[in-house]
Amino acid sequence: MITIFPDILILLFPFVMLSLKLFLKVSLKTQENFAVGYFLVVFVTLNFILLGQNHFYLSNWKIDSFGIFMREIFVLSSLLAISLSHNYFNSSVSLKPKLLNFSEFSASVGFAAFGGIVVVSANDLLTLFIGLELATIPMYALVAWNKRDSEGTEAAIKFILTGSVATAFELFGFSYLYGFSGFITFPEITNAVATAQVSPLLWISLLFIISGIGFKMTLFPFHLWAPDIYEGAPTPVTAILSVTSKAVAITFLTVLVLGPLHSVQKEISPFLALLAGATLFVGNLGALSQSKLRRFMAFSSISQAGYILIALLGNTPNAKYSIVYYLFLYTFSNYLAFFIFSVVGKNQAETFSALRGLSEKNKFLAISLLIALMSLAGIPPLAGFFGKLQIFTTAAENGHFFLILFAVLNNVLALYYYIQVLKSAWIDKPEKEIALSIPTKQKIIILILTLSVLLLGFLPFLSNNLSIAFL
Amino acid sequence: MTLLHCLILAFILFSIGIYGVLTNRHLIGMLISIEIMLNAANINFVAFAYFKAQDPTAGTLFSIFSIAITACEMAVALAILIAMYRKHHSLDVNNQEKNHE
């Protein structure tokens, strides 16, 4: 019974949050503490679930090891996003008006997390589609949260237009997949795909589905919306977009490609490899010439999406394991970077020049930034390196050596722009002095995140535990 | 009327939707085009359910669910449009483009 308990808790969270404000009229501070505490409790509960078993509820709500780890990532991401948003609700940050309506904000974050959970538990196309929409629709509202900031509204318009077109593509693809197999449940689709000869209907449907999810995962030809939206959205929302939204999209692809479409995985892998390679390269090229931090993080996360996609070319247990491991590291490193950017951009715009002189003003922040960015770039003792290593090993099992070589070469390119950021923080002299103050809560979270990024790489037992769960 | 007729109709509607999204400069027009694309997919579902599928209930149910989900999406879109209209007093995309580097 405990396996389904966290799901119910997450589903209840938005309603509890809303009624806290509506009926009990508690203060902002209590609401914040409650939301953070709630997600912490859910996260701890998730850790008590026994791994390595498959549970089914209501005949098609599936909970397996992969599902539990993805739940942990969604909950962790929501938890960090809510703590990151603390400053933005209490004062105006980086020259933008302060955000309002915390309880609705955290409710939307909770709904998005539940959408991710629905996607990972799905055992038929309808549940998968509903989960994806449940994870995406709150994002549209979250991007537009700052109504008094016209940039945010503009970004939300762009997001909802591209996102809805992507939804239409997915739905169209699903309809062909339904027509091809005659069923919407995964076991029957698996059978139909395995027994069918090469069917044009299947390929058209895959084309539509992959283009649709490509939008949401910011894969190469569909990535152009990301920088504008990452820049326009409030910083906590940008962080959620880059972690939860991307994690939902990759989960969606994993559930489909390693599930019902497993027997055609060999045939679609050249296509996925091409997408992954192009995404890596374009993301890296784009990041080279940025001057705004959030825009920079957008391109960086585009190239990270390319790396995660490489893992899908591997075989089932290892591919799932490396996706989960990489997403954990990515969550920690990315949120660490966003926390630091939000502290630095407290009283100024979040640009590279805001970072100048950080090493003199605050050694602690400068070192944390070094660790976060080096982990994203994949430098050996840090967590990011082991994540990338795992992904490359997985892809190598099926002989995608050329793609791996290309990805490794791209890493050199990535290192260049990550070091550019560090150069601003460590070498460049500041133009004017702007005082830097870190609230104690933020300091503790940054410290915890820094330690986790360090330790996830250093302590092999964590990754070993993960890999054992998938055997 | 055969399955092929319905599929061709749906595909034409989908193409009209894409054309509309790409050429329309008015935000409401773009939303309507998106709605046409989504309904094309619904026609596909219903057509497959009626003519071919072994599990016809699933297809019809899927289209009903997708109509409801699309309605939610459009509700959020319209809310954002209203927020935008209050700022700019126009829903023309060309008037709102800012220069991004």
Using a beta-carbon cutoff below 8 angstroms, give the protein chain pair with the largest interface and the number of residues from each chain. A-B, 42 and 46 residues
Kindly estimate the percentage of residues of chain A that lie in beta strands according to DSSP: under 5%
- Spatial extent as radius of gyration of chain B: 17 Å
Structural class of chain A: mainly alpha
* Whole-number count of domains of chain B: 1
CATH class of chain B: Mainly Alpha
- Unreliable segments of 5+ consecutive residues of chain A: none
Structural account:
The complex is a heterodimer of chains A (471) and B (101). Chain A has a domain at 282-471. Chain A contains 20 helices and 2 strands. Chain A has helices at residues 5-24, 28-47, 65-84, 86-90, 102-121, 125-143, 150-181, 186-195, 200-217, 225-232, 235-257, 265-288, 293-311, 316-344, 358-361, 363-377, 383-397, 401-426, 440-458, 460-469; strands at 55-57, 61-63. Chain A has a two-stranded antiparallel sheet with strand order 1-2. Chain B has 4 helices and no strands. In chain B, helix 1 (3-23) runs antiparallel to helix 2. Chain B is elongated, with a radius of gyration of 17 Å. Chains A and B meet through helix 6, helix 7 and helix 10 of A and helix 1, helix 2 and helix 3 of B.
